[in-house]
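A reminder from the course coordinator: this example appears on the midterm review sheet, so study it carefully.

Given structure:
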């Protein structure tokens, strides 16, 4: 059973940057995609981005493309989410998740990390 552990969250001022990490336990990585989702208080969990381990398949939520960048280091079994020009509305718990295949649908993901809090505030 794959395990995912997120890190890198914290408090940042508007306009600042953070890089989140998602460390995955060893499994058949080429056959999985790793995605980032986020959930703000009182809101549904929403798709942020996904990537496969070759980096050839990447997708972003349309509203976040340009500010957020997802990348993968297969040697470290780690996926990163670089977040720039952060806004207060980016405040949420950020989760990474794994699935066989590629999907923006939260219901297609069965393996989740514990989440990391990102707070954007002055």
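Designed residues:
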């Amino acid at each position: 059973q794959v395990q995912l552990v997120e890190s890198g969250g914290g408090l940042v001022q508007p306009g600042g940057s953070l890089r989140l990490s998602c460390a995955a336990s060893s499994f058949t990585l080429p056959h999985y995609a790793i995605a980032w989702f986020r959930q703000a208080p009182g809101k549904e969990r929403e798709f942020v981005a996904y990537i496969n381990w070759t980096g050839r398949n990447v997708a972003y939520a349309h509203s976040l493309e340009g500010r957020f960048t997802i990348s993968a280091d297969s040697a470290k079994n780690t996926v990163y989410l670089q977040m720039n020009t952060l806004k207060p509305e980016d405040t949420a718990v950020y989760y990474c998740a794994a699935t066989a295949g590629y999907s923006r649908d939260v219901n297609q993901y069965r393996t989740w990390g514990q989440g990391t809090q990102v707070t954007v505030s002055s």
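The two ends are 40 Å apart (CA to CA). The chain has a mean pLDDT of 92.
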